[in-house]
């Protein structure tokens, strides 16, 4: 079945896509990538370059369009690409469904960290947790969270999510996943779509930024992962947060974000180990917490970006 849609959706550069209902024209330039249910192309529209995803599966296209619409409802976050058009195309090979979205330019997260330095890792993960918090509040779980699905655009460097094909409504079974970032593969949880699934993947993403060559699981996967974190001089700084995320101890992306910010701030405070301690700490910071988080993230981003540009010029 996969080979069928791949054949039907395989078109050369220069092909003109004409929307059946809206009559908009798009000229394909190159393939950007393909997933489990469709192909994404760079295309030229009347207004400029866009990303166009096509598939023979109307249900998957409808589902992804709904996700992008949900992203648009989240205030104060760029989240995924903007949605421009949804239509059908009567191609020479039959009816093809497609949607058109913003073309986000920039390196994927792992490439950005490898070039800019690991000092960016914590800041980028904090940005990602903001994205996930907004997504979870709208009843969605991203699911297939990995560096390839995260683009750093800018300036200033801003994390954006692409390829929403794995995004799943909370409570259902995860639709798409990549083994290395999947808690089911590591034997540390189910594939039920819930916030803790994304937070496990975020922890694995964090580990991947420090161990770019992905590795296979051993018999005691938790011990394996905790030793890798503990034995890395830079990554060990985030050990308490990562181990809690790997074992499903966080109730929300915001909790995980707050504790990473605590570590990034370089203060003498420790990450609270219990929910009671977290609650007490939140009560103390109720009035200034959100403001200080914003100031800290902006300050870190500005400083790191200045160093990044300075190093690049040299």
Task: Indicate the topology.
Blueprint: H1 2-8, E1 16-18, E2 25-34, E3 39-45, E4 48-55, H2 58-73, E5 83-91, E6 94-102, H3 109-116, H4 121-137, E7 140-141, E8 150-153, E9 158-161, E10 168-169, H5 195-210, H6 221-231, H7 239-246, H8 253-264, H9 275-284, H10 289-313
Antiparallel strand pairs: 1-2, 2-3, 3-4, 4-6, 5-6, 7-10, 8-9
Helix pairs in contact: 4-5, 4-8, 5-7, 6-7
**Cα distance spanning the termini:** 52 Å
Structural class: alpha+beta
Helical content (DSSP H or I, runs of 4+) = 40-55%
Tell me the count of domains: 2
- Percent range for β-strand residues: 15-25%
- The dominant shape is globular
The name of the CATH architecture of the largest domain is Orthogonal Bundle
Task: Give the uncertain stretches in residue-range form.
Answer: none
Question: Major sheet: size, sense and barrel closure?
Answer: 6 strands, antiparallel
User: Based on DSSP secondary structure assignment, what is the total number of beta strands?
Assistant: 10
The total count of helices amounts to 10
Strands of the widest sheet, in order across it, are 1-2-3-4-6-5
The CATH homology group name of the largest domain = Transferase(Phosphotransferase) domain 1
CATH topology of the largest domain: Transferase(Phosphotransferase), domain 1
Query: Radius of gyration, rounded?
Result: 21 Å
Q: Return the string of H and E elements.
A: HEEEEHEEHHEEEEHHHHHH
- Main CATH class of the largest domain: Mainly Alpha
Could you tell me the mean pLDDT?
87
Task: Please explain how this structure is put together.
With 314 residues, this protein is α+β, with helices and mostly antiparallel strands. The chain has 2 domains: 2-102, Phosphorylase Kinase, domain 1; 109-313, Transferase(Phosphotransferase), domain 1 (Orthogonal Bundle). 41% of the residues lie in helices and 18% in strands. The protein contains 10 helices and 10 strands. The chain has helices spanning 2-8, 58-73, 109-116, 121-137, 195-210, 221-231, 239-246, 253-264, 275-284, 289-313; strands spanning 16-18, 25-34, 39-45, 48-55, 83-91, 94-102, 140-141, 150-153, 158-161, 168-169. It has a 6-stranded antiparallel sheet. Strands 7-10 form a two-stranded antiparallel ribbon. A two-stranded antiparallel ribbon has the order 8-9. A hairpin with a 2-residue loop joins strand 3 (39-45) and strand 4. Helix 4 (121-137) packs antiparallel against helix 8 (253-264) and helix 6 runs antiparallel to helix 7 (239-246). The longest helix has 25 residues, at 289-313. The termini are far apart.
């Amino acid at each position: 079945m996969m080979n069928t849609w791949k054949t039907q959706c395989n078109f050369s550069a220069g092909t003109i896509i004409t929307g059946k209902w809206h009559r908009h024209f798009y000229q394909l330039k190159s393939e950007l990538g393909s997933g489990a249910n469709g192909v994404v192309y760079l295309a030229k529209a009347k207004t400029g370059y866009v990303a166009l995803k096509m598939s023979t599966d109307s249900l998957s296209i409808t589902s992804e369009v709904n996700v992008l619409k949900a992203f648009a409802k989240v205030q104060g976050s760029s989240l995924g690409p903007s949605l421009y058009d949804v239509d059908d195309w009567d191609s020479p090979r039959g009816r093809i469904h497609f949607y058109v979205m913003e073309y986000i330019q920039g390196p994927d997260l792992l490439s950005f960290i490898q070039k800019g330095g690991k000092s960016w890792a914590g800041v980028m993960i904090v940005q990602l947790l903001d994205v996930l918090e907004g997504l979870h509040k709208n009843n969605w779980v991203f699911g297939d969270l990995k560096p390839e699905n995260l683009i750093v655009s800018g300036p200033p460097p801003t994390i954006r999510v692409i390829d929403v094909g794995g995004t799943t409504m909370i409570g259902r079974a995860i639709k798409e996943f990549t083994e290395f970032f999947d808690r089911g593969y590591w034997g540390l949880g189910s594939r039920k779509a819930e916030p803790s699934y994304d937070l496990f993947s975020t922890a694995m993403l964090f580990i991947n930024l420090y161990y770019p060559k992905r590795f296979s699981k051993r018999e005691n996967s938790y011990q394996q992962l905790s030793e890798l974190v503990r034995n890395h001089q830079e990554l060990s700084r985030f050990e308490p947060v990562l181990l809690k995320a790997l074992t499903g101890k966080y109730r929300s992306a915001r909790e995980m974000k707050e504790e990473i910010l605590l570590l990034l701030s370089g203060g003498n405070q420790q990450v609270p180990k219990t929910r009671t301690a977290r609650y007490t700490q939140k009560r103390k910071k109720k009035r200034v917490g959100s403001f200080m988080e914003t100031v800290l993230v902006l300050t870190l981003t500005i400083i790191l970006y200045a160093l990044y540009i300075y190093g690049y010029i040299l």
